[in-house]
């Protein structure tokens, strides 16, 4: 890209003018405003404008509020509130960054120097090659620098955040570990206590076991001695009893032999007696059998006789019974006849029949006379 | 009140009975000297509604006869005895069932009737003496004219009905 020669000359003139002005500005700019009389005036002017704008916004808000109470829209109020907030922020910033600090002026100086350098460079190029690529390059480089700076700032922020996090983590871990250590310490103390206790215990136990063993040994010995004595005594008694037994055995043997002899004799005697008795009993039995036969015969005869007699008696009884019945019957008949006769006689009299008929009264009388005679 | 009325009725009954006895006695007191023939006593007693047998009658006579048998009975003796009998209702005529029983006893074979021969035999041979006249009267009243036997069941019931 290149301008024509004339244009380049025009532009170079403008650039030269600008460069001159910048260098003049650099020469006249003080290092700092501080300690100078117009400084406070500058600052107060600044602050005054800011406060004025603030007041204006507030009054507007009041107006809006009154308007709203009369039924106007709300969007105006919203806008006012926003502008009030931004102006507040602006006031804060301007209060903090006083334009009077030294750093600020340094920076302005530096920036001016840089601008001047770039412009000088561009001016030279215009003069030499009728172009302004160095200006473009400088702008590009500046842009790149700015981008890098921003990147670095972002990275730094990230780094800072991470550091905070890590520090927090470290703190947490430390707390944890401290707690753990405390616990461990406690544990150690506890275990030490236990160890001490155990030692004391085992000591005591050892003593006890030792004593116990000694006592047991002693006891066993005593017991052994006692049992030995007992066994010895037993042995003695057994010996004496053995002697006794041997003697008694002999005695008993003798006695039994004698007894056996006696018994053999008795057996013989009883055998004899058995034979004799059996014979006698046999004889008796035969005698009894004959007598039994005789008795049986007699019994049969008697039975026969008894049956005969019984028959006779029964017949007699039956006959008597018959007679009695006959008599009864006769008596009954007699009574019946008497009753009938009595009834008939009564009936005849009452009904005036036969001899009592009034017509035949005399005849009746005659008959009655007859009857009376009979009775008498 | 009840007691006295009862007494009254008893007294009136007694008077009634005595009156009846007196009436019956007077019929046979032919000589009007308050005595009757011994032989008439049975008729008097029977006319008063009693049915004693001859034996019982004989006992009664033995009770009221004079110590020296005169053949006559005095009213003074007869009245108390008869009153007594009537008050006690002794010798009442046998009721139907008893008569029936008596006939059944005589009917040995239980055939439900008695032939004339049987009746005659029992009345003459058994019991007290029965006169020929009494016998005849009895037969004429009791024998069934169609069959010539005594159908005693019918006869007894007929007689009982007549009684009442």
From TrEMBL, chain A:
Keywords: Cell projection, Coiled coil, Cytoplasm, Cytoskeleton. Its main location: other. CDD domains: IQCG (cd23766). Residues 357-376 have a biased composition (Basic residues). Residues 352-376 are annotated as: Disordered. It is found in: Cell projection; Cytoplasm, Cytoskeleton. The keyword Coiled coil applies. PROSITE patterns: IQ. Residues 156-201, 292-340 form a coiled coil. The keyword Transmembrane does not apply. This is Dynein regulatory complex protein 9. It comes from Clavelina lepadiformis (Light-bulb sea squirt).
UniProtKB/TrEMBL annotation, chain B:
Signal peptide: none annotated. InterPro entries: EF-hand-dom_pair, EF_hand_dom. It comes from the Eukaryota. Residues 16-51, 94-129 form the EF-hand domain. This is EF-hand domain-containing protein. It comes from Clavelina lepadiformis.
């Amino acid at each position: 890209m290149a301008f024509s020669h004339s244009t380049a000359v025009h532009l170079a003139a403008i650039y030269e003018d600008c460069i001159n002005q910048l260098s003049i500005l650099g020469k006249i700019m003080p290092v700092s405003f501080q300690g100078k009389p117009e400084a406070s005036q500058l600052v107060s002017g600044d602050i005054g404008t800011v406060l004025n704008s603030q007041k204006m916004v507030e009054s507007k808000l009041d107006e809006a509020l009154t308007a709203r109470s009369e039924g106007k829209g709300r969007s105006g109020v919203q806008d006012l509130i926003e502008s009030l907030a931004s102006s507040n922020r602006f006031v804060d910033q301007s209060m903090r960054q006083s334009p009077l600090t030294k750093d600020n002026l340094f920076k302005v100086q530096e920036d001016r120097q840089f601008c001047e350098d770039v412009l000088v460079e561009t001016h030279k190029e215009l003069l030499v090659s009728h172009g302004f690529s160095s200006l473009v390059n400088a702008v590009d480089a500046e842009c790149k620098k700015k981008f890098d700076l921003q990147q670095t700032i972002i990275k730094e922020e990230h780094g800072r955040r991470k550091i905070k996090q890590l520090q927090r983590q470290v703190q947490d871990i430390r707390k944890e570990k401290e707690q753990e250590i405390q616990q461990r310490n406690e544990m150690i103390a506890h275990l030490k206590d236990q160890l001490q206790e155990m030692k004391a215990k085992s000591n005591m136990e050892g003593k006890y076991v030792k004593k116990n063993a000694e006592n047991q040994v002693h006891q066993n010995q005593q017991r052994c001695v006692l049992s030995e004595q007992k066994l010895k005594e037993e042995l003695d008694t057994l010996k004496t009893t053995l002697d006794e037994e041997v003697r008694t055995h002999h005695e008993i043997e003798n006695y039994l032999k004698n007894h056996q002899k006696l018994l053999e004799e008795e057996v013989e005697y009883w055998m004899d007696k058995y034979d004799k008795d059996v014979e006698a009993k046999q004889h008796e039995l035969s005698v009894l059998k004959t007598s039994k036969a005789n008795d049986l015969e007699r019994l049969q005869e008697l039975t026969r006789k008894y049956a005969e007699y019984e028959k006779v008696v029964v017949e007699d009884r039956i006959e008597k019974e018959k007679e009695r019945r006959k008599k009864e019957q006769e008596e009954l008949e007699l009574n019946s006849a008497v009753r009938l006769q009595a009834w008939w006689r009564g009936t005849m009299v009452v009904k005036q029949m036969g001899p009592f008929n009034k017509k035949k009264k005399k005849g009746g009388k005659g008959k009655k006379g007859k009857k009376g005679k009979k009775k008498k | 009140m009840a007691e006295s009325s009862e007494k009254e009725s008893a007294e009136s009954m007694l008077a009634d009975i005595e009156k009846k006895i007196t009436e019956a006695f007077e019929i046979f007191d032919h000589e009007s000297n308050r005595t009757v023939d011994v032989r008439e006593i049975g008729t008097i007693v029977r006319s008063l509604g009693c049915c004693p047998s001859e034996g019982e009658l004989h006992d009664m006579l033995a009770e009221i006869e004079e110590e020296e048998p005169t053949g006559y009975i005095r009213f003074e003796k007869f009245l108390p005895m008869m009153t007594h009998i009537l008050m006690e209702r002794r010798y009442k005529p046998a009721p139907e069932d008893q008569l029936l029983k008596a006939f059944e006893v005589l009917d040995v074979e239980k055939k439900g009737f008695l032939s004339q021969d049987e009746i005659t035999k029992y009345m003459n041979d058994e019991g007290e003496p029965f006169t020929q006249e009494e016998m005849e009267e009895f037969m004429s009243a009791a024998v069934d004219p169609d069959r010539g036997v005594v159908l005693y069941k019918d006869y007894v019931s007929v007689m009982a009905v007549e009684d009442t």
